C-alpha cells in the first residue's frame, strides 16, 4: 500500500513491455514500518477506547494481481484485478482486504471512428494525514467512462465523452464527503506527424453529495465547468511535456462564498538525457486530487521532482521530492476552518533490484513533515519499506 505508490515517479527509464503476453499474474509482498501511523503531533500518542497506544506500527501487505489483454481484429480488450490484504501488527482494527479491478474496450469502427469504454474500482484506507482520529475509513472509488472520436483529417479529430465518478466510505463519519459526479466533455485534437498531440477540451460536470439532507441552506451538490488545453508533446528526442492546464469554475448553491474560479492543471516534464538517467518534474493545481485527499473540494498546489538512476542492468535508484499545499477554503459543509491550509514536504528514496526477469525487489524510506495555519496539528512521519514482486 505504501511502498510502490510512494516512490513511483513520472521520470522513468525504458522497460520491457508485456503487451504481447495475453495473461500476466503477479504476487507481491510488502513489509512497512510507520513511526507515526495516525499522523499525530510531536509528543502526542493515539488514544483508543481510553487507552494511550504506541505511535508506530508494522504492516504487511500481500497482493495477488492479474492482467489480461487481447486484440480481436482491430478491437483491443484489457482487464486487470488485484486482491490486496493489509494486516497491522498493533492496530488490527485497520486490517482490510481491497478489491481493485478494471476493464476497457478500445474500439475502432471503419477508418475514422474510434473510442474507449471502461470501468474501474479502487479501494483503499483513507489517509490519516487529512483527518483526525483512529477510526478505519475505507474509500471505494468507482469510475466509468465512454468516449468516441471522429478522424476528419490525418492530423485533426474531434470527439465527445462521458464520465461518472462515485466515491463512497464504509464509516458514517466520512459519509458527508461521499459524492457522485457526472461529466460530459467535447474536444478538438491535433496530432503531429511525429505523434505528439494537442487538444482543446470543454468539460461540464454536475456533482452531488447523496448522504447530506437537502434543506434551503445545506450544500448537496455543485456544478463545474472547465476549459482545458491537453498536451502530450515531444519537445526533443530526450524530453516530453504532458498534462493539461486551463480554467475551472465551480459553484455551490446556497454557498457562494465557497465558489472557486481559477487556473487549474497538471503538467509533467520528462527528461531522459542518457540511457541511465531520467528526471520527471510535475507542477499541479487541482481540486480534489484523489492521491492527496478523499474530499473533492480541497485545492491542492504541488511541485514534485522524480529522479531515476539506472545503476546497472538490474539495479535502479529512484527518488522523490515533493512540496505540497492544501487549501480547505472551499469546504461546502463548514466542517473545516475556512482559513486552514496545510503545507507538506515529503522525501523518498528506493533501491530496486531485478535479479531475474520476473522478479523485482525494493528497499526504501520515506519522510514527510506537515505544518498547518489552523489549530489542526502538524506532524512529522517516517517509514521504511521492503517489497518483493514475482510475475509469471
Automatic annotation (TrEMBL):
It comes from the Bacteria. NCBIfam families: EpsL (TIGR03014). This is XrtB/PEP-CTERM-associated polysaccharide biosynthesis outer membrane protein EpsL. It comes from Aromatoleum evansii.
